[in-house]
Write a structure and sequence with these properties.
Distance between the termini: 51 Å
Strand content: 5-15%
Largest sheet: 9 strands, mixed
CATH superfamily of one domain: Nucleotide cyclase, GGDEF domain
Structural class: alpha+beta
Radius of gyration: 33 Å
CATH architecture of one domain: 2-Layer Sandwich
Helix content: 55-70%
CATH class of one domain: Alpha Beta
Number of helices: 25
Shape: elongated
């Protein structure tokens, strides 16, 4: 809005000013609407028309809502309501009731909000203003869900979904579906939640509704959060946040709640703490009481887990004393004392046991898996679509084991396997197990990395190079290895009860094992899945033999290759990859 327009606006007739403000609101030009507030207040005084005056009060109230002055907005909506009642304007009366309900809801007074929503819907019932009725039902559903009247909330949202779908209003339909899914989730109707997530994605694909794309990922992330599949939940949340940025510049604090939890349970504690801090600040500024309460409680638990009891206690006290009634404040004082003391008591009781358990688990399991077992008590099996698997075996170990002294044999094996473990750590491989003289590792699970094929190939070459100078005590020849590598999907999980082990299964594992068994002595036997990913290696670190057709048990005849060091790698110091 330019300066000339701003200086002359206060002189415009009230009706013209009302039209400009209404257009600004309808087109989402909220800053322009807010800038017009003083002129709109002046126009109320100038006009004698009660209907114009009522609509000016209404648009001023809407402007105040944009600046989160809900008390000021309530005052204007009540003024508008009295004027609409004086002229018998049904739409204005019903709409004012609903708008007053919205302000009470934003202030946390849900019982008052519900009363006004119901009155507004009743006034409009039977009129032609069905859009206002649906808007009222949507807001009523939100208030019902906040007060745990979930079945009633679902009824309101189901009505809205049906109406928006009939009228092909895809954006509002997306919002109604998302609200309905949230209620179904609280009711434990998980299948229907997933069905809505798919429906939202279909809306996004068919009608280019970005809001639907955002909400489908939010719902899916929530579902994976329930399943404790935090890495998937985090990926979906990050996708949702990117979409949300294209829709609105408002902070995405609702998505950040799940993001903070995912970071927390993935062991990324510092990041989680930063996100919680940010949520608390923004939710407080926006008067988002429910979001603030949820974030503060989660954050307090995280602080207590880290032994920061004073800060956790203060946060709980702030959270639980933010109530909107005397009763809530009294309950808050009691509750924060109990929760802070209880968290500290439980923490101290379990601290020694948890530390010992975590030490043992971290020595035997991947870090993220150990963390999940310590914090959640279980680790859910997971499918990984793209990882690399390596098997290595010492050639001639069986006859050697019958000839060497047992102590020399164990010393030799220990030397080989410790070398392999060091190489695995260097490239970010996860050792799965050793069986006899066989050693197995995976790259890309349980923590995914894009360059897992390069990492496992580098590791295999380093392993072959390392054993060229190794000799078992009492033996008369250097160690030779057979190595097999393949990439593809696997299923991973923890097996055992008293003795836990992280393991992977699937055709990818089986083929890697078969490649090792059919490898030439001292070679690295790989599949086309490996060569296709490494064939364009710009650093010339890798070379491959001519392909040969090999009959692999369970897989038939396939073309395989030998991986060798390229000229760019020979004699050079190998790259050390750090996560």
């Amino acid at each position: 809005m330019d300066g000339t327009r701003g200086t002359s606006m206060s002189l415009q007739p009230a009706e013209e000013l009302l039209t400009l403000a209404t257009d600004a609101y309808a087109q989402g030009r909220y800053e322009e609407l807010t800038a017009m507030t003083d002129d709109l207040v002046g126009a109320v005084v100038r006009t004698a028309d009660p209907l114009v005056k009522a609509n000016l009060h209404r648009i001023i109230a809407i402007s105040k809502v944009q600046t989160r002055d809900y008390v000021g907005a309530l005052e204007r909506h009540h003024l508008a309501l009295r004027l609409f009642e004086s002229v018998g304007d049904v739409r204005g009366i019903g709409g004012s009731y609903i708008n007053i309900g919205v302000c009470h809801s934003r202030l946390g007074a849900e019982s008052k909000a519900i009363d006004y929503f119901v009155r507004g819907i009743d006034v409009l019932d039977g009129s032609e203003h069905t859009t206002f009725i649906v808007n009222g039902k949507m807001n009523l559903g939100v208030s019902y869900s906040k007060t745990d009247r979930l079945v009633e909330a679902a009824e309101q949202f189901e009505f809205a979904v049906s109406w928006f779908e009939d009228h092909k209003m895809w954006g509002p339909l997306s919002n109604a579906l998302s609200n309905l899914a949230s209620v179904y989730d609280l009711l434990g109707r998980q299948d229907e939640v997933l069905a809505i997530a798919k429906r939202l994605q279909a809306l996004a694909d068919e009608h280019d509704v970005k809001l639907a794309a955002y909400q489908s990922r939010m719902l899916a992330a929530t579902e994976y959060q329930h399943r404790r599949e935090w890495d998937v939940a985090l990926r979906l949340i990050d996708e949702a946040r990117e979409i949300q940025r294209t829709i609105s510049s408002d902070p995405s604090i609702h998505t950040d709640i799940i993001r903070a939890r995912a970071l927390r349970y993935l062991g990324r504690i510092e990041e989680a703490q930063d996100v919680y801090e940010n949520i608390c600040v923004i939710a407080s500024q926006l008067h988002e009481h429910d979001t603030l309460a949820s974030a503060q409680k989660d954050y307090a638990e995280l602080l207590a887990e880290r032994g920061m009891f004073d800060k956790a206690y203060a946060l709980l006290k702030d959270h639980l004393s933010n109530g909107t009634s005397d009763d809530l404040r009294k309950a808050a004082l009691e509750m924060h004392r109990f929760e802070a003391q209880e968290i500290e008591r439980r923490f101290r009781e379990r601290l020694h046991t948890a530390q010992e358990q975590e030490r043992v688990l971290h020595n035997t399991l991947p870090s993220s898996v150990a963390h999940a077992l310590v914090t959640d008590g279980h680790y859910a099996p997971e499918r990984y679509n793209d990882v690399s698997v390596l098997f290595a075996d010492i050639v001639g170990f069986t006859p050697m084991s019958s000839q060497l002294d047992p102590a020399d044999l164990i010393d030799g094996l220990t030397n080989v396997f410790e070398t392999f473990d060091d190489i695995a750590a260097r490239y970010g491989l996860e050792k799965i197990k050793t069986v006899g003289d066989a050693w197995m590792a995976v790259c890309g699970a349980p923590v995914y990395v894009d360059d897992h094929v390069i990492r496992i190939a580098e590791a295999a070459l380093d392993m072959q190079r390392a054993v060229r100078t190794m000799v078992f005590p009492g033996a008369d020849s250097v160690v030779k290895l057979r190595i097999g590598i393949h990439s593809g999907p696997v299923v991973a999980g923890v097996i055992g009860k008293s003795r836990l082990a992280f393991d992977v299964w699937g055709d990818t594992v089986n083929l890697a094992a078969r490649l090792e068994q059919t490898a030439q002595h001292g070679s690295i036997h790989v599949s086309e899945a490996i060569t296709s990913r490494l064939g364009n290696d710009s650093g010339q670190r890798f070379r491959f033999s001519e392909g040969r057709v090999v009959d692999i048990k369970g897989f038939g005849s396939i073309t395989t290759y030998e991986l060798r060091e390229g000229e760019g790698r020979q004699g050079a110091r190998r790259i050390r990859i750090k996560d």
